[in-house]
Amino acid sequence: MVIRMPRIIQARKILKRSLSNGSTTPASMDIPKGYFAIYVGEQEKKRFVVSVSLLSEPTFQELLHQAEEEFGYNHPMGGVTIPCSEDVFTDLASRLGAF
Questions:
Q1: Which of 55, 70, 71, 62 is nearest to 22 (CA)?
Q2: Are the CB atoms for 80 and 36 separated by under 8 Å?
Q3: DSSP state of 31
């Protein structure tokens, strides 16, 4: 198994930058340690709380890269926003064991 550390580090930096733009709200305080919030959807965004273990998955890293290209680091929802349909994300996250 090959682990590409630079991509993992890059994914963590994207997540840190994104989370640093958000404010501390009651919604952000209900996230357990080892998890983070993601907003997913093309039109209407739905909030998911997923394991940080996703950060080491190349497929998820690609989604983060797409989110960076589309939204930059200024995420309007205060958390990471993923530009894909909810069905695609839930299928991918389920296969990766994120829930």
A1: 71
A2: yes
A3: P
Q: Per DSSP, what are the bridge partners of residue 48?
A: 38
Check if the beta carbon of residue 97 is closer than 8 Å to that of residue 52. no
Q: DSSP letter at 54?
A: G
Task: At 77, list the tokens.
Answer: 């929802």
The pair of three-digit structure tokens given for residue 96, joined into one six-digit string: 């990766």
Query: What is the token pair recorded at 93?
Result: 């996250």
* Tens-digit pLDDT string for the chain (99 aa): 445 456 556 555 555 554 444 444 555 567 889 988 888 888 888 999 888 888 899 988 988 888 788 777 666 666 788 878 899 888 988 888 776
